[in-house]
Amino acid sequence: MDVLPLLINGFIIAFEPLNLMLIVLGCAVGLFIGAMPGLGSVNGVAILLPMTFLVPPTGAIIFLGAIYYGAMYGGAISSIMLGIPGASTAVATTFDGRPMALQGHADKALIAAATASFVGGSVGVILFTLFAPPLAEVALTFGAPEIFSLMLMAFATFVGLGGDDIPKTLFSIFIGLVFGAVGLDIISGEPRLIFGGIPGFFHGINFLVLAIGIYGIAEMLWTIEVSQGKVMISQATVSYQRTMAALRELLTTWKTMLMGSFLGYFVGILPAAGATPGALMAYGVAKTMAKDPETYGKGNINGIVAPETANNAASTGAMLPMLTLGIPGSPTTAILLGGMVIWGLEPGPRVFTDHPDFVWGFIASLYAANLFALLINVAFIPAFIWVLRLPFTILAPIIFILCIVGGFVPTMDMHDVWLMLVFGTGGYMMRKLDYPMAPAVLAIVLGPLAEPALRQSLLISGGSFGIFFTRPFASVIMSLALFLILLPVMKIIYDRIKKPAAVK
Amino acid sequence: MRKFGTKLTSLGIALGLGFAVAPVDSAEAWEPKKPVEFVVMAGKGGGADKAVRFIQNIIVKNKLASKPFTPVNKPGGSGAEALVHVKNASDPDHTLMFTLNSFYTTPLLQPGLGIDIKTFTPVGRMAEDTFLLWVSKKSGIKTVDQFVKAAKAAGNKWIMAGTGKNSEDNILTDFLNKAYGLNMKYVPYKGGGRVAKELAGENANSTVNNPSEQLGFYQAGKTVALGAFTHERLPLFKEAPTFKELGKDFTYYMQRTVVGAPGMSEGAAAYYQGLFTKVFNSKEWQDYMKKKSLQGKFLTGKPLMSYWIEQKAIQKGILQKMGVIK
Amino acid sequence: MRMAELVMGIVMGVFSLYLMWKSAELPIGWIAGEGPGGGAWPFWLAAGMLVCCIAIVIRWAKRITPQSRSEDPFMTSRTFRLFLLNAGSLIGMVALFHIVGAYGAIPAFLIFYLRFMGGHTWRLTGAFAFVTPIVTFLFFEIALQKTLPKGITDPWFEPVFAFFY
Asked: What are the angstrom distances between the C-alpha of A365 and each of A7, A318, A353, B68, C15?
């Protein structure tokens, strides 16, 4: 394939002074927006869309691509520093990133996240460069049965995520799924669980409302209780030696990085899936494959590397169906697609032949954006660490204000802010009683993807579950998912038979 | 009764009310005093959202307004959330909404919302989107006759993908089922882009997408347009006959209209009417319409209001015949 | 703690029943040839919640979980006071959003939190209460064009917008 000359031509375009400037600017802006709880890449790209008419279309898409990348890097910052996932793609990063920050390793966690993002993004772009058109064809054949199988697999990789208390873990999953069902049932067209027609429930319960409520407000209340309002949030420092040590430690995670990159990329190219399931599955797989799964969730560096490589690789992957099919794989790419239409470019199967300068310039700019996002991110780490060292009585109200504003902005609805307070206080009480909260947050993300896919599949098959086993892709993914679900169950049964005394 | 039920025409443009009202001079008197909230009845990335962001761009690029227009997506409850929000807008002079046909159908399907579209302020109809019947190229189907034959043979195994229960796509599917005695199964997906993809990926047998949604796949030779639910053949799809030519008198359009909040002051209404006249006449919007195969003239003020009333009656008739409302 | 475990189990059980009842407004059964009805997914998941709550209560009765054995109070009076102050000031701030808008509520919250709960100097408190709303305004309203609620202060912002645009 004569990809190389095209790519080199693309690099020449990407490194034009104006485009290069746009890349740097976009990365910085994106990083900042992504680091805010409540604002993710979707907001960044949507908000800055009208400003791109100032430059030619190629520059505009490069700028938006850079914002996208910057925001994906930035999402990890809020997850690690505040424990609040800035976007659904960064949920899994909180699991180990937060404990590391609390143990005083915020700098290591941030470096790990930035490096992992770089690796994931780079692998993603390379795969994109080499295999774009054939993968687009595969993605096109993915229908509802395949998507449901995939969602089930995402759940399966997470069976072991909760605490030791099985009823409470299951409760958390169920309540997340039920909250995810609020709003409009698209299959029957009927409003569902709107609690007596409260308009704020029409749009459903936004993932961010639950995530900020639980990870922001409930966690803050918990921290305040534990510290009795006295201690600092963490004793973070940053230095050259520590950075080098962190990088050396990162070298040991290369397996996780590769796994996360490939998994993330392939989940990302599937329309309607996007980066969130990719990141969650990567975390689950890393934990399942690890020799020391019990250290996950307590500050294992692999627990940051896996989701961060995956979500960046997936973001790149999600651009593939957007460019080649005109089908967005995530809300952010949907906006990018809208932008391309505005500039008079019609993404679709012919875009590679009709607008080679545009496509290859864009792809090359992704390589560059990836590098600059890494550099900018690392350069800002000392500033982030400084923020962490502020006295808690200053940091707490700032975080609370960020939570409230961050809860309002995505939907511009005060209803969501109140709901967030309810989740926050309720979540705090449940947290005190050892109800695991992460499964609920995952469930509210995956539920609304899984349920319509299940029902669309059953509509197509006329109510027969056979549809999941007669289609080639669906049957493979479904079998894997069922195996992964049954694995821990069989393990429990096996353990009980082997040593029944251990239960009591 | 069934056959008769299909005899519906959207007479909106035909009524001779489609003159673009020239901006009134006094419109200059009122100016927005803060950013204008531009509510979208659909989610981010959909057709309506893209159009709103395109309009926002035209306004910025040509410096048509002194204050920014900020899109706010309120897709909940098939637009119910947006309608209630705009109805209760605290500042009607700075609240606009971009509407689809759910502007008529949602208040009809959910009377509990207490929405009366006559109270909203008519600002400007930017376009009417069209619908065509699509199948995938690999199916080998080239005409509506072949389509009917294949769909009849498949019975309820024939999958028609669409954008939601009781949506425009559902209405058209119902029409086809009744007009040709078919028993296609309607499977709702979220958003027209997704529907188009399901057809191109052969997870559905046919769709009734808007041209803008299928255009990419159509140009790539993956999908074929069989027939148009319009008065005349569309310039972009000359090969697809209208259903009228095929002896089924059925046309259906989707409005893309800018609506002002109820209680908007006259000065503000005049300002927005003038503004959107300029947007409509801009080169960018005219190109966009051509490229997306959008139809219709600009409508505003009283003619737009009478268009709404008439469209609402038509939609009501359709929904009654579908049996979803009384 | 023991008491709280039981109360939470029962409250959540009742909540599950409420969700089941609400879900049942749509068909919850199997529709032949179509699959589950519109209410089935939330209904059966809420039923799952209920089963979990029953399990939690049974485990409470058998004293299996650490919480059901703990005789510590759920919240000490000091913890309770901290919780009330924090949660209360948050609720107060959100309520103020409706009345005096974001730019009245944010300074008020900061003054309360920094000065009266944090015991910081008036100088630091004042600086934060002054700078935070300005930064918020510039970032959200001007840079990102996201309008925050302004309540009765809405007309005061007209000259501000006139200045920026």
From this structure: 10, 16, 19, 30, 51
- Closest Cα of chain A to B221: distance in Å? 9
Q: Which two tokens stand for residue A368?
A: 């560059």
Residue B189 · residue B162 · CB < 8 Å = yes
Tell me, yes or no, whether B117 and B139 share the same domain: no
- Per residue of chain B (326 residues), give pLDDT as tens: 333 333 333 333 333 333 333 344 444 578 899 999 999 988 776 778 888 988 988 898 888 998 989 888 888 878 888 999 999 988 999 999 999 999 999 999 888 888 999 999 999 999 999 999 999 999 999 999 999 999 999 999 999 999 888 888 999 999 999 999 999 999 998 878 788 888 988 999 999 999 988 888 888 888 999 999 999 999 999 999 999 999 988 899 999 999 999 999 999 999 999 999 999 999 999 998 998 889 999 999 999 999 999 999 999 999 998 888 87
3-state SS, residue A140: helix
Asked if A373 and A73 count as a contact pair (C-beta separation under 8 A), the reply is yes
* Owner of token pair 């959008």: B294
Q: Who among C33, C146, C165 is closest to B67 (CB)?
A: C165
* Count of residues making up chain B: 326
Query: Which residue in A393, A412, A455 is closest to C120 by CB distance?
Result: A393
Distance from C149 to chain B by nearest Cα, in Å? 11
State pLDDT tens for residues A148-185.
988 888 777 766 565 668 889 889 989 999 999 998 88
Residues C93 and C158 grouped into a single domain: yes
Q: How close is the nearest chain A Cα to the Cα of C164, in Å?
A: 16
* Pair C104, C126 in one domain: yes
Q: What contacts C57, CB < 8 A, 6 or more positions away? A: C6, C9, C10, C13
Identity at A304, one-letter amino acid code: I
Q: Domain containing B113: what range? A: 2-129+253-322
Domain that holds residue C56: 2-69
Reading the block at residue A474, the tokens are 């669906």
pLDDT in tens, A44-99: 777 777 777 677 878 888 888 888 888 888 888 888 888 888 777 888 898 898 88
Token readout for B192 is 């027209």
ipTM value of the model?
A: 0.94
Q: Are residues B122 and B151 in the same domain?
A: no
Q: Which of A268, A259, A315, A329 has the alpha carbon at shortest distance from A287?
A: A259
- Tell me: do B141 and B228 sit in the same domain: yes
Distance CA B141, CA B144 (A): 8
pTM value is 0.84
- Pairing between β-strand B223-228 and β-strand A190-192 as defined by DSSP bridges: unpaired
* Yes or no, beta carbons of B189 and A326 under 8 Å apart: no
* Residue pLDDT, tens place only, C132-150: 999 999 888 887 788 899 9
> Would you give the distance in Å from CA A111 to the centre of its chain?
18
Cβ separation of C147 and B66 shorter than 8 Å? no
3-state SS record for A159-221: HHHCCCCHHHHHHHHHHHHHHHCCEEECCCCEEECCCCCCHHHCCCCCHHHHHHHHHHHHHHH
- Number of Cβ within 10 Å of residue C72's Cβ equals 10
d(CA B36, CA B91): 10
Residues 6+ apart with CB under 8 A from B74: A203, A411, B39, B40, B41, B81, B82, B85
Q: How far apart are CA A313 and CA A316, in angstroms?
A: 5
Beta strands B132-136 and B206-207 are: antiparallel
Do the chains contact at B77 and A42, CB–CB below 8 Å? no
The enclosing domain of B157 has a CATH number of 3.40.190.10
Q: Are strands B95-99 and B36-40 parallel, antiparallel or unpaired?
A: parallel
Chain A 87-146, CB below 8 Å of chain C: which residues?
none
